[in-house]
Amino acid sequence: MSHGSLSLAGRKPLLQRLKRDITTNWQIYIMLIPAVIAIIMFAYVPMYGVQMAFKDFKPIKGIWGSEWVGFAHFQRFFKGHQFRNLLENTLYLSVFGIIAGFPAPIILALMINQIRAERFKKVLQTVTYMPHFISTVVMVGMIIVFFTPSTGLFGHLGRALGVTNPPNLLASKTAFRPLYIATNIWQHMGWDSIIYLAALSAVDMALYEAAVIDGASRFQCIVHIDIPCILPTVVILLILSAGRVMNVSFDKVFLMQNDLNLPVSETIATYVYKIGLKKSQYSYSAAVNLFNTIVSFVLVLMVNTVSKRLGETSLW
Amino acid sequence: MKKKVAESVFSRRTKGDVVFEAFIYTLCVLILLIIAYPIYFIIIASVSSPSEVASGHVWLWPSMPTVIGYEAVFEYERIWIGYRNTILYTITGSLTHLLVTIPAAYALSRPNLMLKRPVMILFTITMFFSGGLVPTYIAMKNYGILDSLWVVILPGCFSVYHAIIGRTFFQSTIPQELLDAAAIDGCSDFKRFIRIVLPLSKAIIAVIALYVAVGIWNDYFYAMIYLSSPERISLQVVLREILIMNSTNDFTMSDIAALRKQELIKYCIIIVSTLPMMIFYPFLQKYFTKGVMIGSIKG
Fold it and tell me: Among all residues of chain A, which has the CA nearest to that of B2?
């Protein structure tokens, strides 16, 4: 009898079950409501607005009332002289940023892990983490005060070392990318090392003991124990950053821009901002933005498939 | 215990190990200097005479100490308007974020919720797609919240990422038996959340609050595009004007001395704006690092 009623309960129509679920868990659902409203208002409504990329959006007519123009904005973007340049600049910054910046926190973590003097280790960690909390505006402000050749620290250092006329790296096309990437490493290397340090702290001590008994040197311990142990973390983080190559942060690039470095510093994100909000070409800007979002998403998908093929380190 | 083992393992060092260790220590000291020196330099430059800084005589300690830079900063009203606004934005923004995100995270951590999966899908999609800059801006405009406190608080009041971190935390640290026991004693879901879950989750709440607070404090992009009235300006936007665009229209500059003073003011303002962070940071470091660890757990 009880068995029968149980299976019957399982077969109740969906709506009825849902009603029951909501009446028993209504307090839980209330906790969820503000978040759902926020997501709809601030994520889905703008997503609905993305259709303006295929329209000739006029603020007076509204998103719904504006005329459809199909892929016209996309065609304009792909055929425009800016397209190649923007794509190149964006990819340069992110790809070289990864090549130069990705290994830095790993090396730092491996080194910090070797330090046995607790006090020094703590100071090193505190100091290297600190720049992460400097705001982008202040960071770029620091770059400007340090690299202004006449008055900045960098110029004085150059003159102290015998360079009579230190170059103005701020106004240089060739220096923009190295400067951007190097200062990024300076700011985030320490913070990014935390996750590797966590992985290293999980390494089984018995491995070191066995290795030392077998006559392994400290360096051999790093190569044969530490690195293999953090490899899964490395792979996941590398995958994640590969999925983000189209998303160079707007803030720092925009703040470091000036007329002289613009040919190498105009990225998709800064372009979207300028044509969209400064020049009010809403639909065109939305189209460029949408292109970027789609490429990013495809990249994440690809990267995830690759990582699945490689083994169990999949993102979801 | 683990530390002791490490000591014993590494107490036997060969000659090569000693050399290797010396190499690592040297490199670490070098890194320490490269990161600490620029920060230290800003501190000493901010209290040095502007001409000394400009001519490169300041290296290790302040030269001809003076506080004229700080005096000028204190007299510059826009900075304090920005400061006041940013404090307001940071406090209200973080509180709203916690108020919306933490309950949602708890709800998502409950088993057997029929609508959990659809809601989760609704949330996850937003991690990969967004309307982008212009459609989002237009939406804010249509809501009529541009250039108000609401535009600072509301769009960022919920983070899917933080909700997932919170959910993982609740699932892994709060024993279901405890909640079941409370339910048998007649505790409602609200009561359980407030009386049991929140007191046990101080760590995760602190972590999320800190991340959001730092984010709002340091944000300049949204403050720049959404807030236009001068009385709502945020600190970072003022900083940009002074540090990057050199537009300190309150300071009249005619000669080199004034120009140098302007440089000095830059050092001072970097210190003044970063000070709160630098004061709190050493005490809060463990929470921040904890945040990285929790964030790395797969959701």
Answer: A205
Check CB contact under 8 Å for A212 and B243: no
- Residues in chain B within 8 Å Cβ distance of A208: 6, 9-10
How many Å separate Cα B217 from the centre of its chain? Answer: 6
Q: Nearest 5°: CA angle at A76, between A74 and A80?
A: 120
**Closest alpha carbon within chain A to B284:** A126
* Min Cα separation A23/chain B (Å): 11
Position A90 scores a pLDDT of: 94
Residue B104 has pLDDT above 80, yes or no: yes
> Which pLDDT belongs to residue A81?
87
Same-domain pairing of B110 and B242: yes
Q: What is the rounded radius of gyration, in angstroms, for the C-alpha atoms of chain A? A: 27
Q: pLDDT-based confidence at A6, cuts 50/70/90?
A: very low
Asked if B101 has any chain A CB less than 8 Å from its own CB, the reply is yes
Surface-to-core class of residue B255, CB atoms within 10 Å of its CB (0-12 exposed, 13-18 middle, 19+ buried) = exposed
What is the number of CB-based contacts under 8 A between chain A and chain B? 277
Please tell me whether residues B16 and B102 are part of one structural domain.
Answer: no
The answer to whether B17 contacts chain A (CB < 8 Å) is: yes
A104-138 as b/e: b if 16+ CB within 10 A: bbbebbbbbbbbeeeeebeebbebbbbbbbbbbbb
User: Is the domain of B40 the same as that of B173?
Assistant: no
Distance from B53 to chain A by nearest Cα, in Å? Answer: 7
Cβ–Cβ < 8 Å for A256, A140: yes
* Strands (E) located in chain A: 55-56, 67-68
- Report d(CA B244, CA A269) in Å as an integer: 20
What is the C-alpha separation between B207 and B226, in angstroms, rounded? 27
Q: Give residue B299's pLDDT.
A: 35
Check pLDDT > 50 for residue B261.
Answer: yes
CATH 1.10.10.10 fits A72-310, yes or no: no
Q: Is B26 on the interface with A (CB under 8 A)?
A: no
What's the predicted TM-score (pTM) here?
0.89
Task: Supply the range of the domain harboring residue B177.
Answer: 77-247
Q: Which position has the higher pLDDT, B92 or A157?
A: B92
The CA-based diameter of chain B, rounded to the nearest angstrom, is 79
B17 shares its domain with B114: no
